[in-house]
Amino acid sequence: MSTHLAPAETVAIPRRPLSARTWAATHRFRPVLVILTALFAVFAVTQDGFVEWSNISNLLTGVAILWVVAVGMTFVLISGGFDLSVGSTMALAGLFLAATLDLGLPAGIAVPLTVLFGGLVGATVNGVLIGQLRLSFFVVTLASMIGITGVVNLWSGTETEFVDSTLIERIGMGDVFGVATAIWIMVATLAAALWIQHRTHLGRDIYAVGGSRTAARLAGIRTGRTLVIVYGISGLAAGLAGVIAVGRIGAASPQVDNVVALNAAAAVLLGGTSLMGGAGGVGGTALGVLFIGVLQNGLSTAGIDAFWQQIVTAVILILAVLGDRAGDRDGAYRRLVQRISTLREKRAAGTAPSADPAAVTVSAQSTDGVRSVPAPDAATAGPALAVGRAVQTAGEPLTPAESLPITVTEEVR
């Protein structure tokens, strides 16, 4: 008896209306969206000046660094990993920026070089070890956090180096057309991340690797290269955040903010990205960052101790993770069964392509184990060939938030 994967077949499934697909795609971050809207409304009613542009601008610029780091962290969590080293990479990027300016390079060249330097550190130090050598992401990023912190202290001599540059200052504290430069950077970062997520093969590969690295590799995806790029993106975000931080204080500080990685992860998880990888997105991350910013700003304006912000965020984060588990276990499984039923109906009606009969089992990996859905013929199972969580049928690919890792086996006797 031999076992092999049944070939995928093409079955046309009518696409849902755009409005329905858009609404379905928001289900992972609807809770934080509702809470954020309610929180904003409460603060707007109870606090004078909360909705004034000056306060909104301060709120947004206050979370600019967290926003940029969290956007990069989103791709890492979707891929099934985590990056503890972003804080130390930020500090290292700040020192690199100061060094390039000391060499006489114009700030217009030093800034993009610094961002690229951060990406190079993330890709080579973390990406190669995790993606190519397949080491544990926790061990690698913990080691790189410690190692890069040591490099920062040796390089700087634990002394702050002041930076005198008009451009750097405008990045951190200036404005363009009356809007803070940091806010423009936030918008540009989100737009670039959304493009990668929705419009590139890399975005689909990241979801596939996060859903199941083994299945993605068997499907022909270069998982090692994908992870190198993912941690490179995280490094790019850390490098850009380092530039903003230098612009804020006018100096490159050797002080490493290791808490920023945890805050970024909290924002990503609040936004609906799965801790197990393979589901989520940067749109939800933006809402998670805004929630943290609005909560912190509102409590500070009301004169409430900032420690309450940490407690409330922690409670909501736990609720968000519990909701994520429940959604993966119940909602995605029901959608999978519905899709298989649709394919069966098309096969019975003669609209699906025929295939040789075989004993086929379609298994969905959920958070509470593996559930099997028996399929009486290969035509039913073929279109559900797994590529991690990026399960695709012709005409309408399942969104990463909707899909589950699927294994299709055909036994030939």
Provide structural commentary.
The chain is α+β, with helices and mostly antiparallel strands. Helices cover 64% and strands 9% of the residues. The chain contains 16 helices and 10 strands. Strands 1-10-6-7 form a 4-stranded antiparallel sheet. Strands 2-5 form a two-stranded antiparallel ribbon. A two-stranded antiparallel ribbon has the order 3-4. α5 packs across α12 and α10 packs across α12. The C terminus is likely disordered.
Summarize the structure.
The protein has 413 residues and is α+β, with helices and mostly antiparallel strands. A hairpin with a 2-residue loop joins strand 8 and strand 9 (396-397). The protein contains 16 helices and ten strands.
Helix content: 55-70%
- How many strand segments? 10
The main sheet comes to: 4 strands, antiparallel
Strand order of the largest sheet: 1-10-6-7
Give the end-to-end Cα distance, rounded to a whole number of Å.
6 Å
Query: Would you tell me the structural class of the helices and strands?
Result: alpha+beta
Based on CA atoms alone, the radius of gyration comes out at 24 Å
Proportion of beta-strand residues: 5-15%
Low-confidence stretches: 353-413
Backbone shape:
globular
Q: Helical stretch count? A: 16
> What do the pLDDT scores average to?
77
- The succession of helices and strands, N to C, reads EHHHHHHHEHEEHHHHEHHHEEHEEE
